[in-house]
Automatic annotation (TrEMBL):
<protein>
    <submittedName>
        <fullName>Uncharacterized protein</fullName>
    </submittedName>
</protein>
<keyword id="KW-1015">Disulfide bond</keyword>
<dbReference type="Pfam" id="PF13927">
    <property type="entry name" value="Ig_3"/>
</dbReference>
<dbReference type="InterPro" id="IPR003961">
    <property type="entry name" value="FN3_dom"/>
</dbReference>
<feature type="domain" description="Ig-like">
    <location>
        <begin position="160"/>
        <end position="257"/>
    </location>
</feature>
<feature type="domain" description="Fibronectin type-III">
    <location>
        <begin position="489"/>
        <end position="592"/>
    </location>
</feature>
<dbReference type="Pfam" id="PF00041">
    <property type="entry name" value="fn3"/>
</dbReference>
<feature type="domain" description="Ig-like">
    <location>
        <begin position="266"/>
        <end position="363"/>
    </location>
</feature>
<keyword id="KW-0677">Repeat</keyword>
<dbReference type="InterPro" id="IPR036179">
    <property type="entry name" value="Ig-like_dom_sf"/>
</dbReference>
<feature type="transmembrane region" description="Helical">
    <location>
        <begin position="595"/>
        <end position="623"/>
    </location>
</feature>
<keyword id="KW-0472">Membrane</keyword>
<keyword id="KW-1133">Transmembrane helix</keyword>
<feature type="region of interest" description="Disordered">
    <location>
        <begin position="306"/>
        <end position="325"/>
    </location>
</feature>
<feature type="domain" description="Ig-like">
    <location>
        <begin position="51"/>
        <end position="145"/>
    </location>
</feature>
<dbReference type="InterPro" id="IPR007110">
    <property type="entry name" value="Ig-like_dom"/>
</dbReference>
<dbReference type="InterPro" id="IPR003598">
    <property type="entry name" value="Ig_sub2"/>
</dbReference>
Length: 636
């Protein structure tokens, strides 16, 4: 009943000939030719008896120009009818279908105008992808020749073109236009830029330096900005730009500023010089330490002493901003100063300035050495004593710590006894061990002196003198040695506050023999000849030696009046005892009865003197004034 030939654009036909024999029962022959079908010649040979009612050639004609969004679109349908008889004069009638095969009605957004064209008054982006085709037929208007409809034309796909708007430009992860993006130095910067546009946009990433950049330069010719290991040269403005042929003169763009977070190790200055090690003299004028941090954001700067004590915490002064001429990076400098006055040797060590910013911490370190004269450090157990006790069966060994910097050295040792001097040869007569620094402190030096020659009791009271040398000063220190044994006898034993029944005893402790000593107080009666008349009695015992006191005292009670006594003070240690004695006589008991003869005579004499004085005063001030010289004769 029907024969349809559909010739696709790629069909390489130069000539097409159809020969229809009389017996071919074809009611309709339709040739649907797409606009680009490369057919150069088409010949139809129709025999007279071929029962063909209609032959229609149908063409869908696209718009002459590219459709743009927000403009009107009209689609025309062109068709040729070869229905018999030739020259039948019937008009063509058109219909339009969408991609689902449904006919377009007059009330829809897309409608058929009076010219048979498919029309939309304002094309939108949402219309992209819609498909339309036309159908044609001879309009017989009820003629008995029949109604023969063509097949659908090729489909026209709606594809409106448009320039991107600002909202069409998307950056992932999302970042607002004009935003500030903070990244750590050494981190990565990755953003993907896309734009909704037709035809597809050309997308570029542009960069302008934050230092002296006035124009943007291309940094990435794609939609992906990917920078790894951010450095000090990367801060600035980054811009994604999207454009196609419809917005060449006004591309859309989104810009953000990269703020690089960093904290560099500070520069350190001492006395205005970029040095990290300095020496000053003890009690000298103040010294200024300075740390300069290149940082973003502003750092919190904390100063600490060599012992870790916090000395100062502040936000740095600044920023002082500028371009480093060597590295060509922008610097933001913050400065903090620490002023110290009247430094002592113990203040020597490493001072640190710690910068904290954005969870980062860096440190500057400065070594300050305070020069001081060597002297004993007064460390308990390691202080240089005036006397040392040694056990004769063992070598003499003296340990002490000296305070001083630069660290001193022992260059010479000599000794003297009873005015005779002896040179103690180092490493032969004495060995010197030196540890510096001691206890982690540069100003402390540990010394250990050991006698390599044998010492005897005859060396007791030998005085050793050592010469300590440092580059700035030379000092000598001495100590006496004594052999270990019983304590020396107490010194200067005296009696004070002697009463009729008690007495107070005072004494000075002697050398303790190298061990702790205690004291006891004993007494006994003596006769007129000083001979003992009773046994020793203990008044007090185990009195400890009081360190740091000059005199020690104890009271003896329960004595008899007007009686002579022998008192002794015993000093004892684990090796023996020494004794010091004195004699004392108690007072008599005071009388408690009436007045004695002496007292009566004294009182009478005092009364007589008083009366004489009264008579003289009466004469001088009263009688002589009243009677004059004559009265004086009568008075006599």
């Amino acid at each position: 009943l029907s024969l349809t030939l559909l010739l696709l654009p790629s069909t390489p036909i130069l000539s097409l000939t159809l020969l229809l024999l009389p017996s071919t029962p074809i009611l309709s022959l339709t040739l649907l030719l797409l606009p680009s079908t490369p057919i150069l010649s088409l010949t139809l040979l129709l025999l007279p008896s071929t029962p063909i009612l209609s032959l229609t050639l149908l063409f869908a004609v696209p718009p002459d120009t590219v459709p743009l969004a927000r403009t009107a679109l009209r689609l025309a349908c062109s068709s040729t009818s070869n229905s018999l008889p030739v020259g039948h004069g019937l008009p063509l009638k058109f219909w339009w279908r969408d991609g689902q095969g449904s006919y377009i009605s007059q009330g829809s957004k897309f409608y058929m105008n009076s010219a048979g064209e498919l029309q939309v008054d304002e094309l939108s982006r949402a219309d992209a992808g819609l498909k339309f085709a036309c159908v044609a037929a001879d309009d017989t208007e009820g003629s008995s020749t029949g109604f023969v409809q063509s097949l659908e034309s090729n489909y026209y796909t709606v594809s409106p073109e448009y320039a991107p708007s600002q909202s069409d430009l998307k950056i992932s992860p999302h970042v607002d236009n004009g935003a500030i993006v903070s990244k750590d130095i050494g981190g990565d910067l990755r953003y993907e830029c896309t734009a909704d546009c037709n035809p597809p946009c050309e997308i570029k990433w542009m960069y302008k330096s934050g230092i002296n950049g006035s124009m943007y330069g291309e940094v990435q010719r794609s939609g992906v900005l990917d920078k790894k290991g951010l450095s000090r040269l990367d801060p600035g403005k980054y811009r994604c730009r999207a454009q196609n042929e419809h917005n060449r003169k006004d591309p859309v763009k989104t810009t953000f500023t990269l703020d690089l977070l960093y904290l560099e190790v500070p520069q350190v200055f001492m006395r205005g010089q970029p040095i990290s090690n300095a020496s000053i003299y003890e009690q000298e004028d103040s010294i200024e330490l300075k740390c300069v941090f290149d940082s973003n954001p502003r750092p919190l700067i904390t100063w600490r002493s060599p012992s870790g004590e916090e000395l100062l915490s502040e936000e740095g002064e600044g920023p002082q901003e500028g371009l480093d001429p060597d590295t060509r990076v922008w610097e933001s400098l913050y400065t903090s100063r620490l002023n110290m006055a009247s430094l002592r040797c113990e203040d020597s060590g490493v001072y640190s300035c710690l910068g904290n910013a954005d969870n980062k911490q860096v440190e500057g370190r400065m070594n300050v050495n305070v020069k001081c004269v060597p002297k004993p450090a007064n460390i308990p157990g390691l202080d240089l004593q005036e006397e040392y006790v040694w056990l004769m069966s063992e070598p003499l060994q003296v340990k002490f710590v000296m305070r001083g910097w630069p660290a001193p050295k022992i260059t010479r040792i000599w000794s003297s006894l009873d005015g005779v001097q002896r040179n103690e040869i180092l490493d032969t007569d004495v060995a010197v061990r030196r540890i510096q620094p001691y206890d982690g402190k540069a100003w402390l030096t540990y010394f250990e002196i050991t006698s390599k020659r044998s010492l005897t009791k005859a060396d007791t009271d030998r005085v050793y003198t050592m010469n300590l040398f440092s580059p700035d000063v030379e000092k000598t220190y001495s100590f006496r040695i004594r052999s270990r044994g019983p304590p020396d006898a107490p010194l200067n034993v005296t009696a004070e506050n002697v009463g009729h029944d008690s007495v107070e005893v005072f004494w000075l402790p002697g050398f303790n023999g190298g061990d702790d000593q205690v004291f006891s107080i004993e007494y006994r009666k003596t006769g007129k000849d000083g001979q003992a008349t009773s046994d020793w009695a203990v008044a007090a015992k185990d009195i400890p030696e009081v360190q740091g006191l000059t005199w020690q005292t104890s009271k003896i009670s329960g004595l008899q009046p007007s009686t002579g006594y022998a008192v002794r003070v015993r000093a004892s240690n684990v090796l023996g005892t020494s004794v010091a004695e004195l004699s004392v006589k108690t007072m008599s008991v005071p009388s408690s009865g009436g007045l004695g003869a002496g007292a009566v005579v004294g009182i009478v004499f005092a009364v007589i003197v008083f009366l004489v004085i009264v008579v003289f005063l009466l004469y001088w001030f009263v009688y002589r004034k009243k009677y004059g010289a004559k009265g004086l004769k009568d008075f006599r």
